[in-house]
Design goal:
239 residues; alpha+beta; Jelly Rolls; 2 domains; 6-stranded antiparallel sheet; 3-stranded antiparallel sheet; 7 helices; 12 strands; 34% helix
């Protein structure tokens, strides 16, 4: 059961189309797991449509369907300068939702399917130790890094401190840290100065969508020595 959600500002900016692309992708992914937040976004969209109708009567007939924010996000992804294979802008959302389980065995949100149209296996993965691999996703946004993290079942990431905001949406499996346990669909936000060490549960790999404002700072002296090499590898994969 989803327990961690975007706050009101995230949802309001998403409904208004004002959220930066990397963050909007994370919110869109969470919405596919969370009916509560979908309902909230729909209410915000309806309210916005009513306000616009009062200000601009000619816009009163504008479509306020609950898919509108998602469709706008898909258009932004299509317009982004990206080297990731994505589906055609002409592909409809309904067609994407109708794909069989064989095309989407992990039940990935549609926004992630769009960014990784060939499947997660076709992304450019970098392996870090035995437990973690990362696939950067280039979306043409310079202010944040977007990536898919895959933590091996029972694996533990190096303890690290955040230098900026990090958004994590769990796509499969679960992980825990000193603050609790997080499951599929959870929207987890970490801020600068926070420190933790995510550990995947033993039953399955943990796959996450991550939007990172600044590179993390490893707590271990050994990992700090490797930090320039790690950043170089990730930069090379995203070019």
């Amino acid at each position: 059961m989803v327990s961690f959600h975007p706050d009101a500002k995230f949802l309001t900016d998403f409904a208004a189309g004002n959220l930066p692309l990397s963050e909007a992708i994370c919110v869109a992914a969470h919405l596919e797991f969370c009916s509560k937040c979908r309902s909230h976004v729909q209410q915000l969209s309806d309210l916005g449509a009513q306000l616009m109708a009062r200000l601009e009567p000619q816009l009163a007939a504008a479509d306020s369907d609950d898919r509108q924010a998602f469709e706008q996000l898909m258009q932004r992804i299509d317009a982004a300068d990206t080297d990731t294979a994505v589906t055609s802008a002409a592909t409809t959302i309904s067609a994407g939702a109708a794909r069989g389980s064989s095309a989407n065995p992990l039940g990935l949100p549609r926004v992630v399917q769009k960014l990784a149209a060939g499947g997660l296996q076709d992304l450019k993965w970098a392996q870090f130790g035995k437990s973690l691999r990362i696939a950067p996703i280039r979306i043409g946004e310079k202010t944040r890094e977007t990536a898919i993290y895959d933590i091996r079942a029972g694996g533990r990431m190096p303890e690290h401190e955040h230098r900026g905001e990090e958004i994590t949406v769990l796509l499969k499996g679960s992980f825990s840290d000193a603050d609790g346990k997080y499951v599929k669909g959870d929207f987890v936000v970490r801020h600068a100065g926070e420190r933790h060490q995510p550990t995947a549960t033993l039953d399955t790999d943990c796959i996450c969508l991550v939007s990172l404002e600044q590179p993390v700072k490893p707590s271990s002296f050994w990992y700090r020595l490797l930090e320039p090499f790690v950043n170089y590898r990730l930069s090379g994969l995203s070019n």
